[in-house]
Design a protein that fits this description.
By secondary structure, the protein is an all-alpha fold. It has a single domain, classed as MFS general substrate transporter like domains (Growth Hormone, Chain: A). The protein contains 15 helices and no strands. The protein is globular. The two termini are 25 Å apart.
C-alpha cells in the first residue's frame, strides 16, 4: 500500500510546523516569565487548569462550527488568537500574573480551535497507511522547532537586559502566527454534509461494547502525565540553574534527540510492534525519572529529558495512530469524525486536569523537593496504565479496525 504523503498533508505539516515553532519560541519561557514575577508552582498549575478547561470546552462547542461550516476558519481563528494572546502578554508585562485565568482561557480557546481543526483535517488528508509516517513527521518537525526555538529564545533573553528579550521573542511568535494564517489559505476546503451531534462523545462512552471506552481511559492516563510535565520540567530546569540560556540548551539537546527518535520510530515502527512499543516506551519513561530521587539538578534533569525524548515516540505514535485508525474503522465513524476528535480531546483534557489537580493538592500540603520528585514518578507512571487499557486492541499481527 502507498504510504507517501500528498501535497495537502505536506502543507498541513508546514502549518503545524509554524504553529509549533511559535509555541517553542515563546511557550517554553512563558511559565518562566510568570515564575520570575511570582515564584509559585500552584499559580502555574492554575494557569494550566484554566487553559485545559477552555481547551476542552472549545473542542466540544466549536465542533459544530468545524463540522457544519468552515473548519479552515477555525484553524485560522486559533492561529490568530494565539497571536493575540502573546500581544496581550506583551501589553500586560509583569502584571500578567494578575490575569492568569483570562489569559489561560484565551490561550486554551486558541489552542482548542487550532488543534480541533488540525486533527479533523489531518484525518481527512491521511489514511491508515501513511498515518504512522505523518505522525513521525509531526514529531520530527516538533523536535526541530524544539531545537531552534528555545535555544534562540534563551540566547536572545540572556543577551538583553531586564525583560526586553521576552518582549522580542513574544513579538517573533506573533509574526509567525500571522504567517501561519496566510499559509492556511492554501489548504483546500472540503464540503461537509453531516450535522454535528452534541451528545455523540457521551453516546460512545455509554456503550459498553464500544472500543472507545478502553481507548478513552488510555487517553486520560496519557493526559495525567502530560498535564503536569508540560510545565513542570521547564520550571525545574530554570529553578535548578537560574539561567534562561541553560533552559534553552536543555531544550536544544532533548529536542535534537527527539528529532532522531521520532524519525526512526515513524519510519520503522510497524503495526505488529505497536503494543510492545507502547509498553516498553511507558516503562522506560518511568525509569528515566528515577535518578531524580538522588538529586534534582541540571545533570539528572538532562538525563531524564534525553531519556524521555528517546522513548516517548514508542508510546505516542502507536496510541495516536490507534485513535485515528479507529475513526476510520466504519462508515459511521468517518461521518462522525469531528465528534470523535472532540471525544479524544475531552479524554486527554480530563486526564490533564486530574494530573494538575493532584499536583496542586499535593503541593498545598508539602513543597519539599522529594515530594515533587515522587509526585513526578507517580504521575509519570500513568502511561503504563494507558497501555493496559488498549493492549487487547492491538493484535500481534497488527491492529485492525474494530467494527462498532
Amino acid at each position: 500500500m502507498k504510504s507517501s504523503l500528498n501535497k495537502q498533508s505536506i502543507l498541513l505539516l508546514g502549518m503545524n510546523g509554524l504553529f509549533v515553532l511559535a509555541g517553542a519560541l515563546s511557550g517554553t519561557f512563558l511559565n518562566v516569565y510568570l515564575w520570575k514575577t511570582k515564584p509559585d508552582y500552584t499559580m502555574i498549575g492554575w494557569f494550566t487548569v484554566s487553559q485545559q478547561v477552555a481547551l476542552g470546552l472549545t473542542f466540544w462547542i466549536a465542533g459544530k462550527w468545524v463540522k457544519e461550516h468552515n473548519k479552515m476558519n477555525a484553524l485560522r481563528a486559533g492561529t490568530a488568537l494565539s497571536g493575540i494572546f502573546y500581544l496581550l502578554v506583551l501589553w500586560s508585562g509583569p502584571r500578567a500574573v494578575h490575569y492568569i485565568w483570562p489569559l489561560g482561557i484565551l490561550l486554551g480557546i486558541a489552542l482548542g480551535l487550532f488543534w480541533l481543526a488540525f486533527n479533523v483535517i489531518y484525518f481527512e488528508v491521511t489514511d491508515s497507511h501513511n498515518r504512522d509516517r505523518f505522525n513521525g513527521w509531526v514529531g520530527l518537525l516538533g523536535s526541530f522547532a524544539g531545537i531552534v526555538g528555545p535555544w534562540l529564545s534563551g540566547w536572545i533573553i540572556a543577551s538583553m537586559e531586564n525583560d526586553t528579550g521576552y518582549r522580542v521573542i513574544f513579538s517573533i511568535s506573533l509574526a509567525i502566527y500571522i504567517v501561519g494564517v496566510i499559509l492556511s489559505f492554501f489548504l483546500k476546503k472540503r464540503k461537509v454534509k453531516e450535522e454535528y451531534n452534541w451528545s455523540e462523545p457521551w453516546n460512545r462512552l455509554s456503550d459498553v461494547k464500544s472500543p472507545w471506552r478502553p481507548l478513552s481511559l488510555a487517553l486520560a492516563a496519557q493526559g495525567i502525565r502530560e498535564g503536569v510535565f508540560s510545565f513542570l520540567i521547564t520550571l525545574l530546569v530554570f529553578v535548578a540553574t537560574k539561567q534562561e540560556w541553560k533552559l534553552g540548551q536543555f531544550s536544544l539537546i532533548t529536542s535534537a534527540v527527539s528529532l532522531v527518535s521520532f524519525w526512526v520510530a515513524g519510519r520503522w515502527l510497524r503495526p505488529h510492534y505497536r503494543s510492545a512499543g507502547m509498553l516498553i516506551g511507558a516503562l522506560l519513561l518511568v525509569a528515566v525519572l528515577l535518578p531524580l530521587l538522588w538529586k534534582v539538578q541540571y545533570g539528572t534533569l538532562l538525563f531524564m529529558g534525553i531519556g524521555t525524548s528517546l522513548f516517548i515516540p514508542l508510546y505516542l505514535i502507536p496510541i495516536t495512530t490507534l485513535g485515528f485508525d479507529l475513526m476510520g474503522a466504519t462508515d459511521r465513524n468517518v461521518a462522525e469524525r469531528v465528534e470523535l476528535v472532540v471525544l479524544r480531546e475531552l479524554c486527554l483534557m480530563t486526564g490533564r486536569l486530574i494530573g494538575t489537580f493532584i499536583f496542586i493538592g499535593v503541593l498545598s500540603v508539602s513543597r519539599m523537593p522529594h515530594v515533587i520528585t515522587w509526585l513526578m514518578i507517580g504521575l509519570g507512571s500513568a502511561p503504563v496504565i494507558g497501555w493496559f487499557f488498549v493492549r487487547g486492541m492491538m493484535k500481534s499481527a497488527g491492529w485492525k479496525p474494530v467494527s462498532e
